[in-house]
Structure formats: structure tokens, C-alpha cells
Amino acid sequence: MRVLIADDEPLARVRLRSLLARRPDVTVVGEVADGDAMLDACVQLKPDLVLLDVEMPGLTGTAAARRLAAFPTPPQVVFCTAYEQHALSAFDLGATDYLLKPVRAERLDEALDRAAARQPSPRAERGAWLRARSGSDEVRVALDEVLYLLADEKYVAVHHAGGMWLIDESLRQLEAAHGDRLVRLHRNCLVPRVRLQGLKTLPDGRVLARLSGTDVALEVSRRNLPAVRQLLRAPGP
Description:
This protein is α/β, with parallel strands linked by helices. It has 7 helices and 15 strands.
């Protein structure tokens, strides 16, 4: 995946480049310090993904993202910001993810995996099935039959209408392979997007997701809430 870094802070660019260097599947194609330079670099370098600072002199990151969206084949955008209140506007602009500064390696990996899952892939139809274990037997479960996936210390539990099976793949691996079909509610939970019906806010401020096919309501983390809300607002097919 070809990545362009757009941030007016030199130290922030150095940190992102250092974190990206850990990933053999990522190539940093350039660095720029403002929104206008980012747009020019996207024309010349054709990155797959832009790590875009929100607050930059001149053309801001959000303004640059609006212009970028008009490109015939725009790259994906992951916003980087020191202010959590920018998250909702980031997803309104179609961002793949947003990262709070100082960017942590784990969150950057999640954003990169999410972006990779959205790229065109030759393995397209592979994603209709998951391989799971029921006792000593290996079974296949259709992704359309999955209600939700919960991770514990060692395994991921696949909950479906008939019960629960275990799977050896991590949530991160599942999200990377099936990111167009799954949405993350919190660090230990993924659900099929088609199951997501709505949200319920509790008196203590916690937010639960309502899912089709089950009475189980799963908590949505503050980090993932903007993306879930954006998905619910999106028009259906």
C-alpha cells in the first residue's frame, strides 16, 4: 500500500514514518506539509492512502479532503488530529479512520488494516465463509449467518443463530480480510454491517448497538462510535 504523509509538524512526520517502517506491506511515497502540496502530490504520486493532519496552515486537512474527494480515483484518507471532536466530521468526509495524536502503533495498524481491506483485491469471494471449530470438528460458517464476534485472551468466539463456535484468526485479521462486511464496535468485538440496526444510549452514557437476529445489545466504544453512527446514516443499497 502506497502511503503519503501530510502534516505540517516535522516531528509528527518523523513519528509516522518510523511507525510505518514496521510494516512490510507499506511504502511511504512522500511527505508534504500543507493541503495544497498534498493535492499536488496525490496527482503526481498516486498514493493509495493519505495520512492527513486536520490542522494545517493554509488549506486545512478537512478542506483538502473535500477537494480530494472530487478526484476521479481518490486515495483513502486517515485523519490525524489532536482533537477528538474532529472525529465525526472526519467520517462525514468519508475518511477510512481517524487517529488521535500522538499516534499509537496499535491504532495506526488498525487504520492501515482497515484501508487495506477496502482496496480492490483478487481474493474477493473468499470472504463469504469463516473457518471455525466446534469441539474437535472443523466447520465452515457463512459470514451472513454470523451475529457477532467476540475476542477473549486466546480465541475469537463466532456467535450465530445455532450457538457459538471458536475461530483461530484474530479480530484484526478478520477485519483486514472482511472489512467491507464487518464493523468494529469496540476493541474486542466485530459485527456484520448488515446486522447493525440502531443505537441505544443508556442513562450512564454508554451506547449499545442493536443487532438483527439477536436480543444481545453490545456496547460501542467512544473511539468507534463516530464510525458506527456514520454507517447507520449512510443510505442503503
